Amino acid sequence: MADSELRISELDFDTIKDNLKDFLRSRSEFSDYDFEGSGLSQLLDLLAYNTFYNSYYLNMISNEMFLDTAILRGSVVSRAKSLGYTPRSTRGAQAIGNIAVTGTGSLPASITIPKYTRFSTTVDDVSYTFSTTEATTVTPSGSVYTATGATITEGEIVTQTFTKTSQDDQRFVINNENVDTTTMTVTVKVSAANPVTAAYTLASDITEVGADSTVYFLVENIDGYYELVFGDGQVGKALDTGNVITVKYLTSSGTAPNGASTFTALDSVAGYTGVTFTTTTDAAGGAVRESVDSIKFNAPRTYATQNRAVTSEDYKRILQREYTAAEDFAVWGGEDNDPVTYGKVFISVKPISGTTLTNSAKDAIVSLLREYNVLSVVPEVVDPDYLYLKLNIDARYNPKQTTETGSQLGARIKTEVESYIDNDLEKFDAYFRYSKLTGLIDDLDSAIKNNVTTVTMKKKITPTATAQRFEINFNNAIDGVTGSRPSSHPAGAGNKVSSGLFTYAGLTNCQLEDNGNAIRIYRTVGGSNVVIEQNAGTVDYDTGKIILTNFAVSALNDGGTELDIFAEPVGQDIIPVRNQIITYETADITVTMTNDNNIITDRLTAVTT
Q1: Checking DSSP bridges between strand 518-525 and strand 507-515, what pairing results, if any?
Q2: Reported confidence tier of residue 375, pLDDT bands at 50, 70, 90
Q3: What region, left, alpha or beta, does residue 269 occupy, with left being phi > 0 and alpha being psi -120 to 50 degrees?
Q4: How many CA atoms are closer than 13 Å to the CA of 215, on its beta-carbon side?
Q5: What is the DSSP letter of 336?
Q6: Alpha-carbon distance 563 to 551, whole Å?
Q7: N or C: which end of the chain has fewer CB atoms below 10 A?
Q8: For residue 269, what pLDDT band results from cuts at 50, 70 and 90?
């Protein structure tokens, strides 16, 4: 029998079949056999198929054993469970507002707005039900009882009941994929005949769970449903045979009701039918259950936090998991703040809708973090710091290489720039890269030959007639003119810091500008620039910080409430710091199209002449 080398590293069908042929040819019995023109070829196909099938199957099994390579949700959830991670459920959208109940006749000293008081709303011709998730006791003002800052959550109310039939392990499955586990309440009754009931809470920290703790654990099973798991008498109180478990929760529609703002009461309160809900914050935060990719990303990172908020990344991971009404988070320690504030951690949130959070939403985040953060550290939620871009784009194009007019091409450029900012910049830690922007413009159409884009930074302040101190932090160096401004550089000429027009000290059409390291106020009179206030503030060109002292404005020329402050950066790239988000206003992006053929013709004519 001839020697043969077994090759097992090739796993595709054709190679497996060739390996089988080579193995048989190495045997004297088959050395002269025609494998292509015989029935044995069919047998080899069968053997190769079986080998290929088994190798593929075993490869899939091995992939499903690891979090990084698993594909099936059940496998990913199982791997995440070993890290102590429970995937986030569907979350109902929440709206914040005031519930008003109009009383009639003899009014009681107080009434209670019950838990699960329902309200209805319609989004895209689909009706959704919102409910209160806690009871609120209110007193009247006149004949109206008002609960301010009330939160209502979207979802249909569902109740499930289980009975423990034996001391053996028993599964208590919430048979609804759209359950919002944050709204879940669990009670355990001694038996169907004994009404004594105890409330059970979700265990969040196993180190604080004792043998008699009335807690439950929540896990997602391989079928994608959540299960309740109770203690064993050592970690958490064990259930007894005959115990009746009642679970009440909301089933959510996910993201669909986000944005709802008008609600109608479906239930009376304390017998009164005059119930209204006035929205202060539109519905937001509705989310579908956590995706497989999100579980694979968050599980190891949440494990690293050990359910404790110590580092800034810990806070960020917890918020990414628990707070669904946000598009992005920025977290930094007080030692990195300006000014330095030890003992605090700062959190900035970009909400999914709107630009800033309400005070009640900020309080909700602080309350959420309270069970995770170290006691000596105080979390504080601050608004994002929006840094606006003002872009003047001068693009040269060849009209012979396009069927579009210059205006049409310019409109496409503006759309492309806005898309770049929308998709790449409007989040924390997103840098503005000048070369990328100009490259996108040049590559937009072959008719565009080049572009010269001027970048200006813009911030907004809200001045009033009462003198105030303003700190305007661009956090990027400003291209300043140092020293006293020479006579060749009069007020209003070529300054690197400027502003919109306003009325100051009774004088209209005033503006800000830099003069060395000082900020002054000037206005144009009869074609000449006249300085009104020589020392209105200071500018630090290196840090990009402008301070206005005792700045009062009686009116703005545009009739608005916000005054624009402009500064030209030293470099062409803009780097956001901490909670800065780079954004824009449509009016601040201007595009000028220049016919490149005309310029070339003019130059050739000048040379010939």
Answers
A1: antiparallel
A2: low
A3: beta
A4: 20
A5: G
A6: 12
A7: C
A8: very high
**Mean pLDDT calculated for residue range 360-378:** 80
Residue 534 contacts by C-beta under 8 Å, 6 or more apart in sequence?
A: 515, 518, 520
Q: Which residue type occupies 101?
A: V
- Of 292-306, 423-437, 517-531, 562-576, the range with the lowest mean pLDDT is 292-306
Q: Peptide bond before 108: cis, by omega within 30 degrees of 0?
A: no
What 3-state class would DSSP assign to 591? strand
Residue 185: CB partners within 8 Å, gap ≥ 6?
199, 247, 248, 249
Contact 220, 138 (CB under 8 A): no
CB 138 within 8 A of CB 277: no
Distance, in Å, from the CA atom of 389 to the CA atom of 391, rounded to the nearest integer, reads: 6
Sign of the alpha-carbon dihedral angle for 104, 109, 114, 120: positive
Q: Are 288 and 295 in contact (CB under 8 A)?
A: no
Give the pLDDT mean for 583-589: 93
Q: Over the stretch 195-213, which tens digit does the pLDDT of each residue have?
A: 999 999 988 777 678 888 8
Contact 189, 239 (CB under 8 A): no
Confidence of residue 306 (pLDDT cuts 50, 70, 90): low
Token pair 């006579």 is found at 487
CA of residue 166 relative to chain centroid, distance:
46
With bands split at pLDDT 50, 70 and 90, how would you rate the model's confidence at 488? Answer: very low
Q: What is the pLDDT of residue 371?
A: 75
- Please report where in the chains the tokens 């190891």 appear, as a residue: 300
74 CB contacts (<8 Å, ≥6 apart)?
221, 222, 223, 224
H helix intervals, 271-405:
292-305, 312-322, 359-369
Model confidence pLDDT, tens digit, residues 320-348: 877 877 888 999 888 888 888 888 889 99
